[in-house]
């Protein structure tokens, strides 16, 4: 069986991805990121429209601060970034690889018709590039 060589983000994106709402507590988010081994997560509204992104780096200091002061951690909406770099399912893997060079995000939410349809990580891109190179 010949496996299709990946060409677009659609070929490699994770469709059933971890996502949170703005009402999620930072503590719950941190547990989810650890469980799914992700450096961040898309933030969506009730209709699954992307409204922001939050990373481990965004929350690390606040979780530490809440431990020191023994208080409740804030909600995701208080710390999330609303200006989010996204990609589309039809984007070329090599084009997205170029965009991911440098200190850009490690995860790109994949959006189609304003709705979150998946995520793609640097690791996904690297594995795809290695697959392309072998063929």
What does this entry look like structurally?
- With 135 residues, the protein is α+β, with helices and mostly antiparallel strands.
- The protein is 39% helix and 18% strand.
- The chain has a single domain, classed as CBS-domain.
- Strands 1-2 form a two-stranded antiparallel ribbon.
- Helix 2 packs across helix 3 and helix 5 packs across helix 6.
Short description:
With 135 residues, the chain is of the alpha+beta class. Helix content is 39%, strand content 18%.
Number of structurally distinct domains:
1
* Protein structure class: alpha+beta
Largest sheet: 2 strands, antiparallel
Number of strands: 4
CATH superfamily: CBS-domain
Helix share, percent: 25-40%
Q: Looking across the biggest beta sheet, what order are the strands in?
A: 1-2
End-to-end CA span: 15 Å
Enter the CATH topology name.
CBS-domain
Mean pLDDT: 89
Shape: elongated
Q: How many DSSP helices?
A: 6
- CATH architecture heading: Roll
- Beta percentage is 15-25%
Keywords: CBS domain, Repeat
Organism: Vreelandella zhaodongensis
Domain CBS: 13-72, 80-135
Pfam family, one: CBS
SSE inventory with pairings:
Elements (H helix, E strand, L loop, with lengths): L8 H4 L13 H11 L3 E5 L5 E6 H14 L6 H4 L13 H7 L7 E6 L2 E7 H13 L1
Antiparallel strand pairs: 1-2, 3-4
Helix pairs in contact: 2-3, 5-6
List keywords for this structure.
6 helices, 135 residues, alpha+beta
């Amino acid at each position: 069986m010949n496996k299709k060589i990946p060409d677009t983000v659609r070929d490699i994106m994770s469709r059933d991805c971890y996502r949170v709402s703005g009402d999620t507590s930072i503590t719950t988010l941190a547990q989810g990121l650890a469980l799914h081994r992700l450096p961040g997560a898309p933030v969506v509204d009730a209709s699954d429209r992307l409204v922001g992104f939050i990373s481990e780096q965004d929350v690390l200091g606040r979780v530490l601060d809440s431990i020191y002061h023994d208080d409740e951690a804030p909600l995701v909406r208080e710390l999330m970034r609303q200006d989010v770099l996204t990609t589309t399912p039809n984007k070329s893997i090599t084009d997205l690889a170029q965009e991911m060079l440098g200190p850009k995000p490690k995860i790109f939410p994949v959006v189609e018709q304003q709705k979150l349809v998946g995520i793609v990580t640097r690791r996904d891109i690297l594995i795809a590039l290695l697959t392309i190179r072998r063929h």
